[in-house]
Request: fold
Amino acid sequence: MKFDRRSETSRPVVGFFLDGKPSQGLAGDTLMTAILTQDGYLRRNEFDGGKRAGFCLMGACQDCVVSVEGRGRLPACTTYLEPGMRIVRP
Reply:
């Protein structure tokens, strides 16, 4: 289930790509927020394929790590969205 944004909806729109598909977040979003408002999960569990949405929310656990073209693997919970980012989920 994707997250539903309830406030701060007037911030400027920021375009990015999620798994090759054009997507939109808002200025000031973390990658986690931008991804979860688009599709509802950050990655699939490597053991059973279940959907994951992060764990510690402070960049310590590696549960929300995604790949960003040109920047490598980054924690989605502490990395801010930038225009044109190309994000690939594991």
The chain has one helix and seven strands. Strands lie at 13-18, 21-26, 43-44, 51-52, 65-68, 72-75, 86-88. The chain has one domain: 13-88. Residues 31-38 form the longest helix (8 residues).
